[in-house]
């Protein structure tokens, strides 16, 4: 099996060294490192990775805007955020920018490897601490908050489909569970994206968490 190609994007060399040490096996290949988003985009003009580990706060170009550009130019490349920032707004912004995973920099080697495995399978991955931050961000009272999204009306069937999407079931699996056609599931998915303003399955997962349709743990 070919090794998984990885680019590390972080303005601290010590962090890049630590990740490289954790992933120094024949299963992974660190093909490049960058100190900011601008450098990462320049590298990717010549060689594409399977995975990008992306910091958020960096000079020249931050991780959120860089992730947007990567997913626009190279949608096949998967992004995992790796940051010290634990606030829910940064987590949401990274997922909305196209990231499929979010880890804190104090994560373990096992967390790194599980995140890689999940996102390459098309799943979403975030560590327990990140999940807790998301839930806190949703339940804490805030002025002028997401009243619009809270008032979004979903049918019972849409809630069922949303919960299954958030649990990473495929359209075919959802169709089988609910005894409906795949085309109907696809229509529900499109409607959910439009109603919630989500851009992808990660956004739908966050919305499902907010509505309490799935267990955050």
What's the helix and strand layout?
Blueprint: E1 4-9, H1 13-22, E2 28-34, H2 37-44, E3 51-54, H3 63-73, E4 78-83, H4 88-96, E5 101-104, H5 109-120, E6 125-126, H6 128-139, H7 147-150, H8 156-166, H9 171-178, H10 182-196, H11 201-211
Parallel strand pairs: 1-2, 1-3, 3-4, 4-5, 5-6
Helix pairs in contact: 2-3, 4-6, 8-10, 8-11, 9-10
Can you walk me through this structure?
- This protein has 217 residues and is α/β, with parallel strands linked by helices.
- The protein is built from eleven helices and six strands.
- Strand 4, helix 4 and strand 5 form a beta-alpha-beta unit.
- Helix 2 runs parallel beside helix 3.
- The two termini are 32 Å apart.
Shape: elongated
Question: Structural class from helices and strands?
Answer: alpha/beta
Q: Could you give the order of the helices and strands? A: EHEHEHEHEHEHHHHHH
Number of E strands? 6
| Residue runs with pLDDT of under 50 for 5 or more positions | 138-150
CA-based gyration radius: 18 Å
The strands making up the biggest β-sheet line up spatially as: 2-1-3-4-5-6
> What about the largest sheet?
6 strands, parallel
Report how far apart the termini are. 32 Å
What is the mean predicted local confidence, pLDDT? 84
| Number of continuous helical runs | 11
Strand content: 5-15%
Kindly state the percentage of residues in helix: 40-55%
């Amino acid at each position: 099996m070919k090794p998984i190609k990885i680019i590390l994007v972080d303005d601290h060399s010590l962090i890049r060294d630590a990740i490289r040490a954790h992933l120094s096996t024949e299963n992974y290949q660190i093909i490049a490192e960058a100190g900011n988003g601008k450098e990462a985009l320049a590298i990717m003009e010549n060689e594409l990775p399977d995975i990008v580990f992306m910091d958020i706060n960096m000079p020249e170009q931050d991780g959120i805007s860089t992730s947007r550009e990567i997913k626009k130019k190279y949608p096949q490349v998967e992004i995992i955020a790796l940051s010290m920032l634990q606030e829910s707004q940064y987590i949401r912004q990274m997922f909305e920018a196209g990231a499929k995973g979010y880890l804190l920099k104090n994560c373990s080697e096992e967390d790194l490897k599980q995140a890689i495995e999940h996102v390459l399978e098309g799943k979403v991955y975030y560590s327990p601490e990140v999940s807790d931050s998301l839930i806190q961000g949703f339940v804490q009272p805030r002025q002028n908050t997401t009243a619009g999204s809270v008032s979004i009306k979903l049918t019972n069937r849409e809630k069922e489909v949303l919960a299954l999407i958030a649990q990473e079931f495929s359209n075919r699996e959802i169709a089988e569970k609910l005894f409906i056609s795949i085309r109907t599931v696809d229509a529900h998915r499109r409607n959910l994206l439009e109603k919630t303003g989500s851009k992808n399955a990660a956004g739908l997962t966050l919305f499902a968490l907010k509505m309490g349709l799935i267990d955050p743990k």
